[in-house]
Write a structure and sequence with these properties.
CATH superfamily: Aldolase class I
Largest sheet: 8 strands, parallel, barrel
Strand order of the largest sheet: 1-2-3-4-5-6-7-8
Number of strands: 8
Oligomer: single chain
Bound molecules: 2-(acetylamino)-2-deoxy-D-mannose
Number of domains: 1
CATH architecture: Alpha-Beta Barrel
Number of helices: 11
Strand content: 5-15%
């Protein structure tokens, strides 16, 4: 069975929220339309960028349904089902399948607690068993001390576990993942700042938060890379990184905040981040807008 199912530049979608933390359903479709038209190949829904773990399951389900409906089978939809409560993750996996997702994914269970490799295998095997959908595990910096390769090798024996989204920014480690199963493993780059490194070391694509704001540049970077135009790809990464530097600086510890604000500047109603994230005042908004204009991200 081919496990390399997700390729290209994919956006980790933010969740549009009103002041009460409720999903603004009608805001989902216009952004998806724009991102598809800009060349993105899919969406990662209710992940870190989508603030999934900070939202009630019912709001997550609402967002997933809205994204799948708006996408209408054009891009690939991967739903992040990770939750502190394993039972909720299983419920979310089933909900994603019923809603028509193409895949599911989950952060490791050790966000608060430490688990050993056998426990991690048990966790992911159980979650993957709750659905027939292809399943991407999540290699995060916190698990850097773990032998991800050893874990992944065991997990690839589960028929619907296909690979990992890797945000560790350690490209030797990413390369090692891609060597498993004779390369029949789906490896997706996490850090947007170094997508070109991920692709160079064997990643099949990238998923990230800042793709929402600069979708055409990410799509082009991937396209140039596929065509063997490495100078072109590097020029795109440079343009992108000037944008990311602005988003990180103004995000002040939470890049989703500046990503959502940048989307507002581009005409999409995405609202604030989940409580207790602060909201920008007028002066801060103006400063972010000016900085994004200076690097050509917005007009
Ligand atoms: O996986 C995101 N990683 C985290 C994706 O949020 C930890 C990235 O898209 C980053 O937000 C992005 C900006 O640093 O690279």
């Amino acid at each position: 069975m081919d496990k390399v199912l997700f390729r290209g530049a994919m956006a980790a979608l933010p969740t549009p929220l009103d002041g009460n933390g409720q999903v603004i359903v009608e805001s989902v479709a216009p952004l998806i339309e724009h991102l598809l038209a800009s060349g993105l190949s899919g969406f990662y829904v209710t992940g870190g960028t989508g603030e999934g773990v900070a939202l009630p399951a019912a709001e997550r389900a609402k967002m997933v349904e809205a994204a799948i409906k708006a996408n209408a089978g054009r891009g690939k939809i991967v739903v992040h089902i990770g939750s502190i409560e394993p039972k909720e993750a299983i419920w979310l996996a089933k909900q994603a399948a019923d809603a028509g997702a193409d895949g599911v994914s989950a952060v490791p269970p050790d966000y608060y607690f430490r688990y050993n490799e056998n426990e991690m295998v048990a966790y992911y095997t159980k979650l993957a068993g709750a659905t027939k959908l292809p399943f991407l595990i999540y290699a995060i910096p916190k698990t850097a001390s773990m032998d991800m390769c050893g874990l992944m090798k065991r997990l690839l024996e589960v028929p619907n576990i296909i690979g990992a989204k890797d945000t560790r920014a350690n490209y030797y480690e990413l390369w090692k993942l891609k060597q498993l199963n004779n390369g029949n493993v789906n490896v997706i780059n996490g850090p947007d700042e170094s997508l070109i490194c991920g692709l160079t070391m064997g990643a099949d694509g990238g998923i990230g938060s800042t793709y929402n704001v600069m979708p055409a540049w990410f799509a082009k970077l991937y396209e140039f890379f596929q065509a063997g135009d490495f100078e072109g790809a590097r020029a795109m990464q440079t343009k992108i990184n000037r944008g990311i530097a602005v988003l990180l600086e103004h995000g002040r510890g939470n890049v989703i905040r500046s990503v959502k604000m940048a989307l507002e500047f581009q005409g999409f109603k995405y609202g604030p981040c989940v409580f207790p994230s602060f909201e920008y005042n007028e002066a801060e908004k103006a400063a972010l807008k000016k900085a994004l204009q200076e690097v050509g991200v917005i007009d």
